[in-house]
Amino acid sequence: MNEITFDDFYQLYQKESLSVLDVREVEEFEALHLEGALNSPLSQLADTYEQLDKIQPYYVICKSGMRSARACQFLAEQGYEVINVLGGMDALE
Protein backbone atom coordinates (compact mmCIF):
# COMPACT_ATOMS: atom_id res chain seq x y z
CA MET A 1 0.00 0.00 0.00
CA ASN A 2 1.26 3.46 -0.89
CA GLU A 3 1.58 5.69 2.16
CA ILE A 4 2.66 9.24 2.93
CA THR A 5 3.20 10.98 6.25
CA PHE A 6 0.77 13.74 7.10
CA ASP A 7 3.58 16.32 7.08
CA ASP A 8 4.73 15.34 3.58
CA PHE A 9 1.13 15.18 2.37
CA TYR A 10 0.29 18.61 3.83
CA GLN A 11 3.29 20.24 2.15
CA LEU A 12 2.17 18.75 -1.17
CA TYR A 13 -1.47 19.72 -0.49
CA GLN A 14 -0.48 23.36 0.01
CA LYS A 15 1.40 23.46 -3.33
CA GLU A 16 -0.73 21.31 -5.63
CA SER A 17 -4.35 20.49 -6.33
CA LEU A 18 -4.76 16.99 -4.87
CA SER A 19 -7.76 14.69 -4.84
CA VAL A 20 -8.36 14.13 -1.13
CA LEU A 21 -10.83 11.47 -0.02
CA ASP A 22 -11.89 11.81 3.62
CA VAL A 23 -13.41 8.55 4.88
CA ARG A 24 -14.52 9.82 8.29
CA GLU A 25 -18.20 9.95 9.17
CA VAL A 26 -20.19 13.01 8.03
CA GLU A 27 -20.27 14.58 11.53
CA GLU A 28 -16.47 14.33 11.84
CA PHE A 29 -16.00 15.77 8.37
CA GLU A 30 -18.34 18.70 9.04
CA ALA A 31 -16.50 19.55 12.28
CA LEU A 32 -13.09 19.82 10.55
CA HIS A 33 -11.88 18.98 7.06
CA LEU A 34 -9.39 20.02 4.44
CA GLU A 35 -10.70 22.43 1.81
CA GLY A 36 -11.63 20.59 -1.36
CA ALA A 37 -11.77 17.16 0.29
CA LEU A 38 -14.47 14.74 -0.79
CA ASN A 39 -16.30 13.01 2.08
CA SER A 40 -17.11 9.35 1.54
CA PRO A 41 -17.45 7.62 4.92
CA LEU A 42 -15.81 4.21 5.18
CA SER A 43 -19.13 2.81 6.43
CA GLN A 44 -20.70 3.69 3.04
CA LEU A 45 -17.68 3.27 0.76
CA ALA A 46 -18.74 -0.11 -0.65
CA ASP A 47 -21.91 1.58 -1.93
CA THR A 48 -20.34 4.83 -3.19
CA TYR A 49 -16.84 4.02 -4.49
CA GLU A 50 -17.97 3.68 -8.12
CA GLN A 51 -18.58 7.46 -8.17
CA LEU A 52 -14.80 7.99 -7.87
CA ASP A 53 -12.61 8.60 -10.90
CA LYS A 54 -10.25 5.68 -11.61
CA ILE A 55 -7.95 7.92 -13.65
CA GLN A 56 -6.75 10.11 -10.77
CA PRO A 57 -4.91 9.18 -7.58
CA TYR A 58 -6.63 9.81 -4.25
CA TYR A 59 -4.99 10.77 -0.98
CA VAL A 60 -7.15 8.97 1.56
CA ILE A 61 -7.43 10.46 5.04
CA CYS A 62 -9.36 9.78 8.24
CA LYS A 63 -8.87 10.68 11.90
CA SER A 64 -5.73 8.67 12.68
CA GLY A 65 -4.92 6.55 9.63
CA MET A 66 -6.71 3.31 10.51
CA ARG A 67 -9.92 3.74 8.51
CA SER A 68 -8.03 5.26 5.61
CA ALA A 69 -5.77 2.18 5.51
CA ARG A 70 -8.84 -0.07 5.26
CA ALA A 71 -10.35 2.22 2.61
CA CYS A 72 -7.10 2.15 0.62
CA GLN A 73 -6.97 -1.62 0.72
CA PHE A 74 -10.56 -1.86 -0.53
CA LEU A 75 -10.15 0.79 -3.23
CA ALA A 76 -6.86 -0.67 -4.47
CA GLU A 77 -8.62 -4.03 -4.88
CA GLN A 78 -11.19 -2.22 -7.06
CA GLY A 79 -8.45 -0.79 -9.28
CA TYR A 80 -8.09 2.73 -7.83
CA GLU A 81 -4.78 4.47 -7.25
CA VAL A 82 -4.75 5.45 -3.58
CA ILE A 83 -2.24 6.81 -1.06
CA ASN A 84 -2.90 6.43 2.66
CA VAL A 85 -2.20 9.58 4.71
CA LEU A 86 -0.50 8.33 7.88
CA GLY A 87 -1.56 10.06 11.09
CA GLY A 88 -4.75 11.44 9.60
CA MET A 89 -6.47 14.59 10.75
CA ASP A 90 -5.12 14.05 14.29
CA ALA A 91 -1.77 15.25 12.93
CA LEU A 92 -3.33 18.60 12.02
CA GLU A 93 -4.49 19.43 15.56
From TrEMBL:
Signal peptide: none annotated. Residues 14-93 form the Rhodanese domain. This is Rhodanese-like domain-containing protein. It comes from Streptococcus fermentans. PROSITE patterns: RHODANESE_3 (PS50206). Pfam families: Rhodanese. InterPro entries: GlpE_sulfurtransferase (IPR050229), Rhodanese-like_dom (IPR001763), Rhodanese-like_dom_sf (IPR036873).
